Amino acid sequence: MTFRLFDAPQAEASQFVGFAGNIIDRQAEKRSDDSTAQALADPTTRLLLVGNGRILLRFNGNGAAGGKFSLDDASALGADIAGAVLLGTGPDGPVVAAPVATESDALPEAIKAVDYRSVYMQGLIDPADLGELAQGASLLAWHANHLFCGRCGKATEMRAGGYKRACTACGAEHFPRTDPVAIMLAVTRDRCILGRGRHFAPGMYSALAGFIEPGETIENAVRRETLEESGIRLGRVVYHASQPWPFPYSLMIGCFGEALNDDIDPDLAELEDCRWFERAEVLAMLERTHETLFTPPPGAIAHHLIRAWAEQR
What is the CA radius of gyration of the chain? Predict the structure, then answer.
C-alpha cells in the first residue's frame, strides 16, 4: 500500500468548506465546572447569541455584520447567561455562546436574527466566526436535547464549561455528540450521479447523503447509501473532506465512490429525482450558466465534491 501522507497538499480540502474556519483554542484538557463563569468575568470575553437556528447579528450603516456581544449587551438582549457555554479562547480573548430568544419583534432595529444557512451563503461573518458559530450552535443544541438523563430520566446539570452534563440522581455523565453523515459523489471518469431532495430549491441537484449507522465504516456507509438511494453499486471509495454542520450537530464526511453499473433505480420515496450528469453539464451548473439547473453554493461540502471531480484533468 502506498503511504500517501507526505504527498498530500499542505492545505486539506476541509479548510475551504463553510463552518470549517474555527481557530479557537478549545483548551479541552483545562475545562473546569466554573470555566464559563471565569470567562464571563473577563472584560475581553465576547458572546455569540443563538437560538432556534438563528444567530443575532449587529448591522451597521454599510450593511456589515458583527456576531459578538459584550456580557452587558448580551444580558440586555435577554441572553440566558446561566445556559452559556465556553467555546475557548480566540485571538481577542475568551468566546462564549449563549442561548437567546430570536423573535424579531423583540430586537433593536440594528440587530437581526439570521438563520445559519443565510449567514454562510451570504458571507455575513468571516470564516473564523462562522466556525465558532458551528461549534456554539451545535453545543447549545445538544444541551437543549439532553436536559434529562438517558439512563434514569432525571434532570441533568451542565458541567465542564458546557462539555458535559451530569445526572443529579444517578450520577451518569453525558458528553456532547456529533452525528456522522456520509455525503458522496458516485462517479465514472466522465459522469457523476446527482439527486434532488423534495425540499431543495427548484433546479438544484446535489450529492447523495445519509447517516452512518452503528458498526459501519465510512466506506461501507457510502456504498450502502448510494445503493439504497440510486441503485448504483460502488467499488473503490476514497475520502475527500469533512464539514461541521450545525443542523443540529452533524459532521459531513465527503467521499467519492467508483460506480460499477449504469442503470439507476432511484428511491423516489427518498428523492424527487436522481440521474447521471455529464461533466460539461456539471461545469455549467457549478458556474450558474446552465439554463435551469445548479449545484449547492460554494460553502457546502457537496459543492466542493462536485467541483473537485468536474475540474479534474
Answer: 22
